[in-house]
């Protein structure tokens, strides 16, 4: 009996019980786009770290045994999508996962979660960032924000954040390391948020969306989930980025109307059934 009669994406990310981010948003979004979402937790949080207190359990030592059981089942994946990784050992585990499960028809999507606003996250050492570059080299699609693009390319965030030419160069440099498609997300431009879409010999342009409210947790995970499912469903890259940006903007509008706390994420549930 085969377990591979349905399209599947393996999502390797942390699980956060409250706060609408990571695996908790990837599962419903990918499912809504008619792809089975299979989960590999990298860590367990009661709620994410923007709250004053939280429970945390590192899953590193359990990941390999967890994955070994998928090998015994003979699972195959059309997509492999990675998010938050807690240490260098996890990056090695993910690289091994890709080597084992990636087939000719498998798309690898890496969201290189490392920082924001020009600052690395506290858990990300220089060694871990270097290892993330190695993981990016194995990807087909990469979805960094501007900070993460700077880390991947060795650029100074303060020198490039307002320079569209330099941002475009970063996308091209990241692509040259391996990924065919790159989208640099969350570029602030006056009344707009822009994404720079780069696919060599296909498209290289800024797509803009009108700003709504402030930053909210989980939007990057929703974005990556849509890009991942669309890649498996053979949706054009630019079209997928436009879809993800539009969906997130609509979620932001609803969340602002309901006065949802910023750390609580976005009300994607209200319009989840509109995803196609």
Molecular structure report:
This protein is α/β, with parallel strands linked by helices. The strands form two sheets. A nine-stranded mixed beta sheet has the order 3-2-1-4-5-8-9-10-11, with helices on both faces. Strands 6-7 form a two-stranded antiparallel ribbon. The radius of gyration is 18 Å and the shape is globular.
Draw up the topology in text:
Layout: E1 8-18, H1 23-32, E2 36-47, E3 56-58, H2 60-73, E4 79-82, H3 88-101, E5 107-110, E6 115-116, E7 119-120, H4 126-136, E8 141-142, H5 146-153, H6 157-160, H7 164-176, E9 181-189, E10 192-199, E11 203-210, H8 219-232, H9 237-257
Helix pairs in contact: 1-8, 2-3, 3-4, 5-7, 8-9
């Amino acid at each position: 009996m085969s377990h591979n009669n349905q399209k599947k994406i393996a999502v390797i990310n942390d699980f956060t019980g409250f706060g609408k981010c990571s695996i908790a948003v990837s599962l419903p979004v990918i499912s809504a786009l008619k792809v089975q979402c299979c989960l590999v937790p990298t860590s367990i949080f009661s709620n994410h770290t923007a709250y004053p207190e939280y429970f945390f359990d590192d899953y590193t030592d359990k990941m390999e045994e967890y994955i070994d059981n998928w090998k015994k089942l003979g699972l195959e994946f059309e997509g492999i999508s990675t998010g938050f990784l807690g240490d260098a050992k996890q990056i090695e585990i993910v690289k091994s996962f890709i080597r084992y499960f990636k087939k000719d028809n498998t798309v690898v999507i890496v969201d290189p979660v490392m920082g924001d606003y020009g600052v690395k996250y506290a858990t990300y050492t220089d060694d871990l960032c270097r290892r993330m570059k190695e993981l990016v080299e194995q990807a087909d699609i990469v979805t960094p924000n501007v900070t993460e693009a700077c880390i991947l390319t060795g650029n100074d965030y303060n020198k490039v954040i307002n320079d569209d030419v330099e941002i475009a160069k970063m996308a091209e440099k990241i692509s040259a390391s391996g990924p065919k498609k790159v989208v640099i997300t969350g570029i602030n431009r006056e009344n707009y948020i822009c994404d720079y879409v780069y696919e060599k010999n296909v498209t290289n342009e800024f797509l803009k969306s009108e700003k709504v409210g402030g930053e909210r947790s989980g939007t990057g995970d929703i974005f990556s989930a849509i890009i991942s499912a669309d890649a498996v469903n053979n949706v054009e890259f630019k079209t997928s980025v436009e879809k993800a940006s539009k969906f997130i903007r609509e979620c932001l509008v609803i969340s602002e109307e309901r006065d949802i706390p910023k750390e609580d994420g976005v009300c994607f549930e209200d319009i989840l059934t509109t995803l196609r």
